[in-house]
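seq as requested:
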Amino acid sequence: MSGSSDRNSLRNAIAGLGWPLILGFAASSLFYTLLFKGPFTSPLMRRYFATHPVSYVATTMFFVGMATLIAKLINVVAQYHSLDSISLGEPAPGGTGVSHCQKLLSQLQQLPQRTRESYLGMRLSNILELIRRKGTADGLDEDLKYLSDLDQGRQQESYAFARIIIWATPMLGFLGTVIGITQALGNLDPVELANSIQTAMQKLLDGLYVAFDTTALALSLSIVLMFVQFLIDQIESQLLSKVDDRTNQELLGRFPQWGTQTDPYVASVQKMCQEVIQTSEQLVAQQTTLWQDTVNAAHQQWSQLGQASLTQAEQALSAALNSSLQQHAHALAEQSDAASISATQRWDQAQNHLLEQLSLLLNQQRELAAEHRVDANRWRATLSESAIATQQQQVELNKHGELLARAIDASQDIRQLEAALNDNLRSLAGAQHFEATVNSLSAAIHLLNTRLGSIPEANPPLELDPTDSQDRAA
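struct tokens:
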């Protein structure tokens, strides 16, 4: 227990110094950020908080002290709330034995760590451990008073860091004043004092203003810290009073006490009575154990008999079930064989029928394929003949086209000759040489037929009827 207490004290000391310093420096940095860049940028605030290095140090120490006191206040408030969560239960009528302390200690160990380390948790744990070690609850009142005094001493020790800051803050202010006065007097120029005493005194007064501002700031901050510490100290004192009341309520009357100081024989008689009671309890426990063993043996015998009967019944039932299951399995096997034979026959019949159908389909497909091949060959020959005839017709058409073109050219020549002949006939009609003209025309026609000799005989040669020509000439 002492080792655990030492570790808790060391951890509390480190936490009591580390976190206030961190939080204090963080709060001081935030404050000066707001002072230079935030809403606190007023000349008065700058004059008291940002004109001298001692002002920075005093302000930082104030925030560190305030963080320490706020952390203490949070701890005290949390312990107020944890008072109702710690309880040892209602004591038995007439009290309980000292051996019950271990059970109560185990009950306290199941609480959360923060609750166990509170004033009430530590008080109950320490007093129960003390009673367990002594083996008696005699002198419980003196032990409770001793532990209460220890808690009060720890309470005063917990404010040591805050008290140092409260004491050191005014000293810093006085130190800033001394440094400011020294600097102001050191910067005083005798020549300027002799020539312009008003200017020199103004500089001296400005330096003194700054010097005394540090003292005013430090005293104001220390006063605030003192009042906050007093308030938290009163709250914690009330907490300790409630812890004393709860401890007395939980422990007084729970363990029997005997007045060994006034009558030492009472304790001896009490111990003898306790030994007799313990011996009687042991005898009763032994007798109860014997009865329990007897009952257990009888119960075990009955269990063995019941198990044997159950085993025989299971064997008989198993034999009957095995025979019936074998018969049932044999019948099922016969039915399964018959069903499989019938299914095999039906399957063979179905396969034969399917094979016959497939053979018929294959024959039909072969016949259809042969017919399709004959039709295809026939269509192929027909298409070939049609293509050849088409080619021949194309050749004949080309020949006829050439003949038509030549006939068209010959008809144009004939029209020209006819026009020339008409002109000649007109000219000859007046000269009365018609006969000679007709001969000349016949000779010209014969010459034309000679030129057109390449035209087939199917087209008859062009002949000029003299009578028609004469009539046309006339």
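The first helix runs from residue 2 to 37.
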